Amino acid sequence: MTHQSTSSRSSSKKEKPSYFNRELSWLAFNERVLDQAFSSKYPLLERTRFLSFVSSNLDQFYEIRVAGLMQKVDAGITRPSMDGTSPQALLDEVRKRAQAMSQREYTCWREELQPSLKNEGVVFKAVDKLTKEEFTWLRTYFRREVYPVLTPMAIDPTHPFPLILNKSLNLIVALRNARKKKSKPLMAVVPVPRILPRLVRVGEPKRGKETFVFLSEVVRHFVSDLFPGHIEEGAWAFRITRNSHLYFDEEEVENLLLTIEEELHNQRKGAAVRLEIDENADKGILEYLLKSTGLSHNDVTHINGPINLYRLMNLPGMVNRDDLKFKPFEARVLKALTPGKSIFQTMAAKDVLLHHPYDSFTPVVDFLKAAAKDPEVFAIKLTIYRTSGDSPIVKALMDAARNGKQVTALVELKARFDEEANVQWSRQMEEVGVHVVYGLTGLKTHCKCCLVVRREKNKLRKYAHLGTGNYHPSTAKTYTDFSFFTAKPSYTSDIANLFNSLTGYTRKPNFKKLLVAPFTFHDTMIRLIGQEAQAARAGKDARIIIKVNSLIDPKCIDALYAASQAGVRVDLIVRGICGLKPGITGLSENVTVRSLLGRFLEHSRVCYFQNAPRHQRTYLGSPDWMPRNFFRRVEVAFPVEEEDQEASIIQKLEGFLKDNEFATELKGNGRYLKVARRNRKAFSIQEYLISQSIKESEREELEERLRRTSGKTENQGKGN
After folding, report:
1. Which secondary-structure segment (H or E) carries 68?
2. Residue 718 forms part of a structural domain
3. Which of 217-231, 414-428, 436-450 has the lowest mean pLDDT?
4. Same domain, residue pair 446 and 352
């Protein structure tokens, strides 16, 4: 799918724009996610997960990006985006492509996944296709579990159109009075509470066969039970997506926590930006919904299938078929970090680098648990952007506070779509004595840092963890990220300085080792790119490798263009949005851009500059290369100094560039194409790293077994 805009920036030369459009690039990314749902390379139930990701991604795209474009158009803003497209032209194109993607999404479900699941005994049925036994079970289920929590809402002169919550499932019903055949038609809305499971397994599995029905179909079939004395003439499922921006001025807010809570309540009532509805909905009903929501026909997505395929996310957990899922994989726990060993002694001896999910996230949790219990630890500081619902990280912080330690949690209340969870964590932690702070005014705190202060021999020693991903044990099993443990004062003093800046008053802190946005990160990246270009002009072999989720910062893109023109080989691994045009003669012929989507979500951010000074060649960190990360967030990138660790990272980057199984390559015309094999064997970097992790675990287990056997033999010899 192309995401190159046909319009160009206004200039005297009428030159073609040198950037891809952000919104269209994002849509191209979601198309690649959708491609995974079509791909037979993945187990069947995993393909349903990819399809659910597509649906969830589109929801967020409408809530944020489409909503923003609609606001620009309504406000009369005409300033073009970085690729030269006006807001109105971009909104028109985005709507067209997003709706086409939605149609392709449902085609995948109806024509690919649903038939394949049926062949495997996992059957989705309409209610009228159920057997007599299945229907009897479902009717009982509806009356016992569903009917009691449904609340029909009449629409008439005394009952106006009700408030429809953001992304909630609803049915709009056409009715007629059973006693008055010539009476005017009536309407009602039936909201379906989120507490009800959207996938209903009908009865118990029989002979390897399981039957499922979508909840929307169940409610639709029995909806007349809610309206005694009336004839139901039609019922259609629909869903409204709303603008999900949080509106507040931090500088005028006295209590950010209370304000966020209030805005979360208001968010559910934001302006409508999309209407999804059954494609066979009555035209009069559709017009009524459009009038009631203030939307136009351009904002309608007609659905041929169950509304909101994100609900398929639960299917793999409901179906006990390991043969239709990824082969289970147990992450390796480094020998140096196994339980029973002092993690502080390990860190004092040498930096430790982990690569999740190939290396277990457990040591990160154990680090905090150990700090919470250790009587010599008296202070813990940590940033929280996203974490899990039953977070052991938060529990460790609360335990530490109960144990009398000074605990500071810097919680980002504005972590998009996790605001509510973070408000709850903040409340719970404050109740047990954790000092909760919310960072710097006007900046999101996105860095991933932890600092532990410990008393050793009447001196204070600091221990730190830095990462590219969140303190989220659940996503650490499916997101690829790096974790770095260190006790080197050159790192820990910078991290202490960072926390002091975030919790106190510092206009422009000074950092010696870390690169911190919005203070030093952007300028340093521009400088390192420029140095690599200078090395190329001097005749040296020059190379840049950058792995990020998004690359749309114009200044960085221009610097990379200049480096390419100087002769630098630039290899970019960009999972999602990319504004840079690769392979353009005279502009970027030395630049390649690859995207890799696979079993795990590529989330780590890595930068490598071949000719940079030692200890400044390889950086890991939290920021993507977007203006928001460079200038509107607190981000941290840190150098990897140990030669063996740096070599391991570079080797993995080279592996990403060799992947010809799940990687695609961005072309100068905006199309993503499968990487050509050129007579080489199929190679997947993720599968390779899984196999290496398993081999390393087996090797360490064998060594431990031999050590124990040797110890027993030695003791027996002494006994003789």
Report:
1. helix 67-74
2. no
3. 414-428
4. yes
Query: 179-231 pLDDT, tens per residue?
Result: 877 778 899 999 999 999 999 999 888 877 999 999 999 999 999 999 999 99
**Which residues 6+ apart lie within 8 Å of 81 measured at CB?**
21, 22, 23, 87, 90
Q: Which two tokens stand for residue 611?
A: 């000719």
Residue 247 banded pLDDT, cuts 50, 70, 90: very low
Q: 27 and 692 in contact (C-beta within 8 Å)?
A: no
Distance in angstroms (rounded) separating the CA atoms of residues 425 and 409 = 10
Contacts of 369 (CB under 8 A, 6+ apart): 392, 396, 399
Tokens of 500: 């002091």
The answer to whether residue 446 is catalytic is yes
CATH of the domain at 76: 1.20.58.310
Do residues 261 and 339 share a domain?
no
Contacts with 159 (C-beta within 8 Å, 6 or more apart), sequence order: 153
Q: Among 276, 297, 287, 236, which Cα is nearest to 58's?
A: 276
> In this structure, what CATH number is given to the domain that contains residue 544?
3.30.870.10
Same domain, 339 and 471: yes
Nearest alpha carbon to residue 657 among 560, 543, 501, 577: 543
Strand partners, 410: 383, 437
Closest CA to 544 of 466, 531, 263, 359: 531
pLDDT at 388 over 90: no
Q: Are strands 618-621 and 605-609 parallel, antiparallel or unpaired?
A: antiparallel
Residue 496: phi, psi to the nearest 5? -60, -40
Catalytic residue among 3, 356, 446, 522: 446
**Using CA atoms, how far apart are residues 476 and 510, in angstroms rounded to an integer?**
31
SS3 367: helix
**What's the CA gap between 622 and 628, in Å, rounded?**
12
Q: Range of 91's domain?
A: 1-109
Question: Comparing C-alpha atoms, which of 302, 280, 285, 303 is closest to residue 155?
Answer: 285
The reply to whether 602 and 664 lie within a common domain is yes
Asked whether residue 115 is domain-assigned, the answer is no
On whether the CB atoms of residues 383 and 412 are closer than 8 A, the answer is yes
